[in-house]
Amino acid sequence: MFLYDARKGGVRGIRQKAGQSLIKLKNAGFTYGGRDILSEMNLHLQAGSFHFLTGPSGSGKTTFLNLCYQALMPTTGTVQIFEQDVRVMTRDDIAKMRRRIGVVHQNCQFLDHLSVRDNLMLPLVVSGRKDEIEQSSLGDLLSWVGLTDRSNALPPELSGGERQRAALARAVIMSPDLILADEPTGNVDWEMGQRLMALLVELNKMGKTILVATHDLNLIRKVKSELSARTLRISNTKLQLPGANL
Amino acid sequence: MEVGHFILGTLSGDRNADRVVPPTGFTARLTTLTAAAMAFLTVFALALSLATGRLAANWNAELAGTSTIRISAPEGQMAAQSEAVLEVLRTTPGIASARVMSEAEQRKLLEPWFGPDLPFDTLPVPRLIEVLEKGRGPNSAGLKLRLSAEAPGAVLDDHTRWRRPLVDAAMRLRILGAVSILLMVGSTAAMITLAAQSALAANGQVIEVLRLIGARDVYIVRAFVRRFTLRVLFGACVGTTLAMIWVFFMPDAAEEGAFLTGLGFQGWHWILPVLIPPLAAFLAFWATRWAAFYTLLRLS
């Protein structure tokens, strides 16, 4: 399932098998410095779903997301990403897996010496697919996130909201199967937060699987009024699934 | 196979891969400067090593086929003893020729030590007979016995006591040159490794972003390896060229007759310094590659 088809330069429909689990956690846990950050996590994240991940600050939301793209290795249990156990993945496997996952951080990082346009192209460049995208398609993507007039700016010149939108554009340029967003609205005002969430909703409606870590309940309520989103909550190192249909 | 692909991929270049690493002017200049200095010194160490090798071979060859007989006798007996020595030599197997050195030749030999105005007539300067050997040369012990019987004032010097320490000294200088080259290779490798590690550590954010978007280690490593290899190649080319020009214009040994002025290359030896830049680039390639992979593993 693709939103952005680099080869054809346009939006592409859902290709993923419904009900397929992209992320599977089985009794997964993560311990750091002798302290349990996460424990006994069980989850099947299905294709095409939209999930919020909530919990108080320091509850382990970011750690959970890191487990979902192998930025961290579980200390107990198993984590499967695209049906592959992270423990047996080679470093090349991890790199290839990450090309299928778009990640948007609260403090998203860019290569500050490259323009916004070049930063957006980076995932294609590192995967050797740079020639597959047409400039007009890149223009469409910039337009979609509202950064057409900022395409030649350097990342340090962008505002918080612009950085978040640029990070989102970079996350989707490879047509990933899954988008993980860690407090994407944390550094922006309410209006910009709504705009970013609207983009994520749009992505989900096109078939993307979305997992958003946030503590902004108002945003969750607003999104839930538009589509069938599920809410996961981390409390006391454990994952609670209130009313989740997973 | 994979390494070969990596080398080709690195050398063929990827403009986009180059661009992901931000330009680092100071580090770049420092690496290039160090590579140039190391190449410059390596050329001189190589020249020293080759020159001392030649010197040892020359001394060995020149002194091995000759010997000298020194006659110390009262003025009245000098001519008779000289004639007796020449007669002995004529009948000794292994002697090609023998001749009494002229006063002018002896004066020239002593000039460096006593100056040009040596009062030759008033000094008891021994007479010297130069002997050229043939084949395996004469039996030294037998010749000495015959000389002591026929000319008591004659002493045979077969140059062994001069030749051995001179050749030993030259060979030690040659080893010193070779060790210097090895030390410079080691220092260059260490310098490149440290510079590469420093560059990788300074670009932690770049590496983090590249990993986040799915860059393989080999892609990240290639960006750094190519940059360092080219910097070192350029620096080594400059250093080698300067050193070769310097060596080329050094005074000729034949003109000055001194040891150090013989430092230089002869014949095909001029090819050897030309190999320094590609070897330095090869060294930089592997040192940076190792440092980059090691650092990436350590960072993960």
Task: Count every helix of chain A, treating DSSP H or I runs of 4 or more residues as helices.
Answer: 7
Record the strand order, biggest sheet of chain B.
Answer: 2-3-1-4
Instruction: Determine the N-to-C terminus distance of chain B.
Output: 26 Å
**Largest sheet report of chain A:** 6 strands, mixed
**What pair of chains forms the biggest interface?**
A-B, 23 and 20 residues
List the strand order in the largest sheet of chain A. Answer: 8-9-10-5-11-12
Work out the strand percent of chain B.
Answer: 5-15%
In the predicted model, the low-confidence regions of chain A spanning at least 5 consecutive residues are 1-15
Return Rg of chain A in Å: 17 Å
Poorly predicted tracts of residues of chain B:
none
The number of domains of chain B is 2
The whole-number mean of residue pLDDT values of chain B reads: 83
Structural class by SSE content of chain B: alpha+beta
Mean pLDDT of chain A: 85
Query: H/E element string of chain B?
Result: HHHEHEHEHEHHHHHH
How large is the share of residues in beta strands of chain A?
Answer: 25-35%
Structure classification of chain A: alpha/beta
